[in-house]
Amino acid sequence: MQKTVTIYGAGYVGLVTAVCLAELGHRVLLIDTQVEKIAALSQGICPIFEPGLPELLARHSQSGLLTFSTDLSAGVAHGLFQFIAVGTPSNPDGSANLEYVFDVARGIVEQSILMAPSEPRPQGSVASDKHSKEVSRQSNKQIPIIVVKSTVPVGTSQEIKKLMGNNFNIISNPEFLKQGAAIEDAMHPDRIIIGAENEQAFQHMRDLYADLHTQLIEMDLASAELTKYASNAYLATRISFINEMSQLAEHVGADIDMIRRGMGSDKRIGPHFLMAGCGYGGSCFPKDVSALINMSEAVSCDASILQAAEKVNQHQKQILFQKISAYFSGDLKNKTIALWGLAFKPNTDDMREAPSRVLIDALLKAGASVQAYDPAARVQAEKIYDKKITYCETAQAALDQADILVIVTEWDEFKSPDFNVIRDALRYPAIFDGRNLYDPAVVTAHGLKYFSIGRGT
Ligand code: NAD
For residue 457, what pLDDT band results from cuts at 50, 70 and 90? Predict the structure, then answer.
């Protein structure tokens, strides 16, 4: 049955959730405070790179199921479901910054009061302090359902509940999509986590997601919130584990790729998130690991594994630079580095916490120049580096007059290059591969030196 849904935050999660709920037949209003973003979306322009997203955006802008606004009051009036999908970036101390989440929550309460008929309101909420009105739903009189989709520390949903009083159902529904495969993940999730406090709230969410035909795992609010952090921290830890093994492999002459295949074939371990590389980045793993450490410390719980995962990752992000620096005996002045890949992972334009940034910063500081190519992240890179680096239109153009080639992101188009072209273009025929894309024997057979991660010295 069709539901009305308002989503606050038109970022990776909010926008993907909006088009997918529209695809399920629900009527969705997407709200963002960024006027330009909403203007672009209203004209059918997709503000982010995400496979399949422009098509769904076009389909549901046309079908009328998906509309856009900057007006919170329109959002409060529209949806029985009120999704909070705004960002929760890191504070300087590693904790999650919840200001955007609470801006939305407060906005919903205040607007609901303005829209409500005059009736006495129970004590115990911000709303009750300001007005004595009962918040009732416009036409259908149903209690609005606040769905917290942003990744928030344990206890946040309860805080939102305190703010809102009993006139809202609060639900924790953390998101597990992967950028680069977000539509597929949102339309075919492994599971949906629902944290709630009463049967009616669970039933609303079952109805909303009925057509996804996947398992809903129902739990309390705190467990749902922690499930999200625990999942991301576990995946980040697996990556740091294999990266730590790659260091050892390199020193003892073992091949991490073989080790990964050997380990990953064990059903108890599985093959995913075991690729050694130049570190994890993105808007989620680094900040969520930090926030979980912060959460643990706040209640005097040990966070040794999380701290180690974070430390290994910080070290791993410097490895490419260390290898390059060693190759040039520490003198990178006036060297030109061809860089393939800027985004933190393939199939996205997102450069938040990307390993490429740690490398570029170090290269520029050492006096090298960078000419970079990325199939999607150029606009994001220009926002960060402006004219400090050169942006190339193709992978081959980045090789022009370059000394060496460095690969940071495993885009498909980098996976089977013409090694003869690379060798002939570079002044020093060497590839530094942060993603282990190639067979070392094949690369070296073409007269190139090949430095990858954890595959012998
Ligand atoms: P984002 O930074 O891409 O987008 C957040 C959006 O919220 C921005 O467009 C911003 O303008 C908007 N916003 C801020 N304040 C607002 C307000 N008061 N009203 C309306 N809009 C407002 O963030 P994201 O990557 O989509 O992440 C959102 C949340 O989902 C975060 O908590 C994140 O940890 C979590 N998450 C992200 C991913 C991912 O892959 N990006 C995956 C799972 C969960």
Answer: low
